[in-house]
Amino acid sequence: MSLPQWINHRFRPHGVLPGFGLTLGYSVFYLSIIVLIPLGALLFKTTTLSWSEFWAIVTAPRVLASYRLSFGASLAAALFNLVVGSLVAWVLVRYTFPGRKLLDALVDLPFALPTAVAGIALTALYAPNGWIGRYFTPYDLKIAYTPLGITIALIFIGLPFVVRTVQPVLQDIEPELEEAAASLGASRWQTFTRVILPTLTPALLTGFALAFSRTLGEYGSVVFISGNMPMKTEIVPLLIITKLEQYDYAGATAIAVVMLFASFILLLVINLLQEWSTIRRATP
Amino acid sequence: MNDLTQRLPRASWLADRATTESAAIRWTLTGLVIGLLGLLLILPLIAIFAQALEKGVQIYLASFTEPDAIAAVHLTLLVAAIAVPLNVVFGLSASWAIAKFDFTGKQVLLTLIDLPFSVSPIISGLIYVLLFGLQGLLGPWLASHDIKIIFAVPGIVLSTIFVTFPFVARELIPLMQSQGTEEEEAALVLGATGWQTFFRVTIPNVKWGLLYGVILCNARAMGEFGAVSVVSGHIRGLTNTMPLHVEILYNEYNFVAAFAVASLLSLLALVTLVVKSVIEWYTHHEQRFREDIRLPVPEGLS
Asked: In this complex, how many residue pairs, one in chain A and one in chain B, have their CB atoms less than 8 Å apart?
């Protein structure tokens, strides 16, 4: 019995369509080769470290400083994007103005623009002699090569996640709900805070978590603007690369496992939020 | 009571006012959003082209005739030409299995397909170094057979496949799920083979979603930086993709050339956005057109 035949035999659901064994078998095979086995290699490599060695690496002062920076900057950027992203979604859905379609399409630019290109463009803007940076230089304010610059790069990367998560939910809100609230005597502000905002909450949280999760591992756009000073402006992905370049494979792997663990937890949270969001939308 | 009668004549425009904001608020918010998006998205885009053209068109164009730049363009095209078709085949295969059949473990499979999106690009490169690098699990065996994967083109291709892995599958799965299996079943009943059904019924039904996934997958494949940077080894003219070439030029303070190559990648991003918008516009209208011509279902059949 060949593998596709065995899959058909073992898992075959009812139905007349062919190709279940072939497609599922190939999908799982390809998934294993590309994703599962390499990720397994990462976990396997970690087991060559004893627990105390592992702990010493992932809690070294330089590593702790990079966690603080990466988590702090991602959190700040995600909070900024939560507010600005919702505002952008609101204006794009609710108001009409010339150029609205163009702006709507441009929101996806950070998805499409290679991260390294975004990185050098932002550095050119916010460097001390850059278009924007030069206006801050007289006041002794540096943007590029500081945590603020890193946060700006992460804001750029994370913005579409909030907009694209909130937009469809905002589009689906029935006008009757708002009319009902208004006819019952609610002011516009009350309607917004008591009717619209609660409906949007799951989408807002999902967008926030997606933006946070994406920016936590971001490398390309940050590496140019960050300055890369150990203890000060060194993000976790950069620290992993530094360890790799010093042939400290075990060190790089240990830190990568911590990041991977954080990503898994975020993935779980996002899945739960999306489920909540779907239930909310199905039964308003 | 008095208050109510005073308000009555204004009720018609009040109804409108109840579901939107005053013009002043509308214009303030719209202006704010235009300003913010201008600052956050449009200004960086302008900066790329301005920096690239700073020393004139001639020096800008000269950046592309440099042999290392040409090699980088070739490598980027080659990597995308391998990674994208492989992920298309996977996307079609996975969406057929997931959308057309019910089986245990489907949810787990869906989560695993999404996994590469939530992994840092650096880790996406690192895992292949740990598997195929000299100190890696298969490193000694590969070295004894003279096969180079890390710091060579195969490693770049593999890590690019990893980071672009979910794009096509994610577009196709919900689309195929929403279309159900009735049309395929009808084709089979009428005597079509499985492959005929797939190519003449399923593919035409999902063609726009497929194109959408391919466009996004391609943009990411050509623009990937972090994962590729870990496995490439940065050998000029050999293992430098366009984004890596941008980095090298930038770090050498050759800003005009760096931004020139970056402007090429930006054009790719802009073309991607245009094609994406056209597909969205087209599918939206096609859907409306289909709804308009939907025939009434004869009684007893519905």
From this structure: 283
The conformational region for residue A248 under phi > 0 = left, psi -120 to 50 = alpha, else beta, is beta
**Three-state DSSP class for residue B253:** coil
What's the CA gap between A78 and A162, in Å, rounded? 9
Q: Do B226 and B122 touch, CB atoms closer than 8 A?
A: yes
Q: How far apart are the C-alpha atoms of B259 and B246, rounded to whole Å?
A: 7
As a whole number of angstroms, the distance between CA A65 and CA A235 comes to 8
Contact A131, A125 (CB under 8 A): yes
Given the structure tokens 């095979």, which residue do they identify? A29
Over residues A56-84, the pLDDT tens digits come to: 999 999 999 999 999 999 999 999 999 99
Contacts of residue A74, defined as CB under 8 A and 6 or more positions apart, other chains included, come to A154, A158, A212, A215, A216, A218
User: Is the pLDDT assigned to residue B5 strictly greater than 50?
Assistant: no
User: Considering CB atoms only, which of A106, A217, A241 is closest to B42?
Assistant: A106
**Which residues of chain B are within 8 Å of residue A120 when distances are taken between CB atoms?**
48, 246, 250, 258-259, 262
Q: Does B44 touch chain A (CB under 8 A)?
A: yes
Q: Which tokens sit at A243?
A: 């360890």
Cα(B193)–Cα(B199) distance, rounded to whole angstroms? 10
Instruction: Give pLDDT, residue B252.
Output: 93
Amino acid identity, position B176: M
Q: For all residues of chain B together, what is the average pLDDT?
A: 88
CA B170 to chain centre: 10
pLDDT tier at A178, thresholds 50, 70, 90: confident
Query: Which of A27, A187, A273 best probes binding to B when mutated, by most B CB atoms within 10 angstroms?
Result: A27
Q: Which residue in the set A17, A35, A256 is minimally distant from B115, CB to CB? A: A35
On chain A, the residues whose CB falls within 8 A of the CB of B274 are 105
What's the average model confidence in pLDDT over B92-109? Answer: 91
Share of chain B above pLDDT 70, in %: 89
Question: Which residue has tokens 């083979």?
Answer: B193
Instruction: Tell me: pLDDT of B13 over 60.
Output: no
Q: Assign residue A228 a region (left: φ > 0; alpha: ψ between -120 and 50; beta: otherwise).
A: left
**How far apart are alpha carbons B165 and A31 in whole angstroms?**
9
- The percent helix, strand, coil of chain B (3-state, each to 5) is 80, 0, 20
B61 is written with which tokens?
A: 């164009």
CA distance A46 to A250: 7
Maximum pairwise Cα distance, chain B: 96
CA dihedral A153→A155→A160→A162, nearest 10 degrees, is 160
Are the C-beta atoms of residues A144 and A121 closer than 8 Å to each other? no
Side-chain-side CA neighbours of residue B116 (13 Å): 29
Q: Is B230 on the interface with A (CB under 8 A)?
A: yes
Q: What is the pTM of this model?
A: 0.89
So what's the ipTM on this one?
Answer: 0.88
The pLDDT value given to residue B302:
42
Q: In terms of Cα–Cα distance, which of B251, B220, B205, B224 is closest to B96?
A: B205
